[in-house]
């Protein structure tokens, strides 16, 4: 009957009695492992990754760099808008001069810059309008506001005043808020 007997260990490492058929077979005591090794785990291997401190240091460095670089980048954006405004005013000036050559007058304040795209109504009459004098619609300034056009102008009573009031949209100001004009008083 020993052939039908199996030996195994219980959870605590002691012998277990198994029955095979009708006979009960007692198993002989098995060699027990020392209790400290039965439930011990293998030593942990170092894992790949970053510690919380390392992550915090990296985030702090990135935040400091962003704080130093962002003002320089945004300063260049403001300069680019000022340059774009100056270029648009120069293009309007060329178109206004071509309009004047054809019609003997600049468009009135009421006719506005739209007279460069469509034949204007009202005084002074556009007797020899050969437009459009601009290929595209009249854009707003880079800050999203319409250009200020006045003819005859306050600063230029014989011609016109054309200006953008800058970022703040108000007359006067400094830096990016300063007026950009056709008569040259620019930041």
Give an overview of the whole structure.
By secondary structure, the chain is α+β, with helices and mostly antiparallel strands. It has a domain at 85-181: Glycoprotein, Type 4 Pilin (2-Layer Sandwich). 30% of the residues lie in helices and 8% in strands. It is built from two helices and five strands; from the N terminus they run ββααβββ. The chain has helices at residues 35-38, 52-103; strands at 18-20, 23-25, 148-150, 161-164, 180-181. The strands form two sheets. The protein has a three-stranded antiparallel beta sheet with strand order 3-4-5, covered by helices on one side. A two-stranded antiparallel ribbon has the order 1-2. A hairpin with a 2-residue loop joins β1 (18-20) and β2 (23-25). The mean pLDDT is 79.
């Amino acid at each position: 009957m020993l052939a039908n007997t199996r030996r195994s260990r219980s959870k605590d490492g002691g012998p277990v009695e198994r029955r095979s058929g009708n006979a009960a077979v007692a198993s002989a005591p098995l060699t027990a492992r020392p209790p400290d090794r039965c439930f011990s785990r293998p030593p942990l291997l170092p894992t790949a990754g970053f510690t919380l401190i390392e992550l915090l240091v990296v985030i702090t460095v990135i935040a400091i760099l962003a704080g130093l670089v962002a003002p320089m980048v945004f300063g260049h954006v403001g300069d680019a808008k000022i340059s774009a405004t100056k270029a648009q005013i120069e293009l309007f000036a060329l178109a206004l001069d071509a309009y004047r050559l054809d019609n003997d007058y600049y468009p009135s304040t009421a006719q506005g810059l739209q007279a460069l795209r469509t034949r204007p109504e009202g005084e002074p009459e556009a007797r020899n309008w050969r437009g459009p004098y601009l290929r595209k619609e009249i854009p707003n300034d880079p800050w999203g506001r319409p250009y200020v056009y006045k003819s005859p102008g306050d600063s230029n009573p014989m011609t016109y005043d054309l200006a953008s009031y800058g970022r703040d949209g108000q007359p006067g100001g400094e830096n990016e808020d300063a007026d950009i004009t056709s008569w040259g008083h620019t930041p």
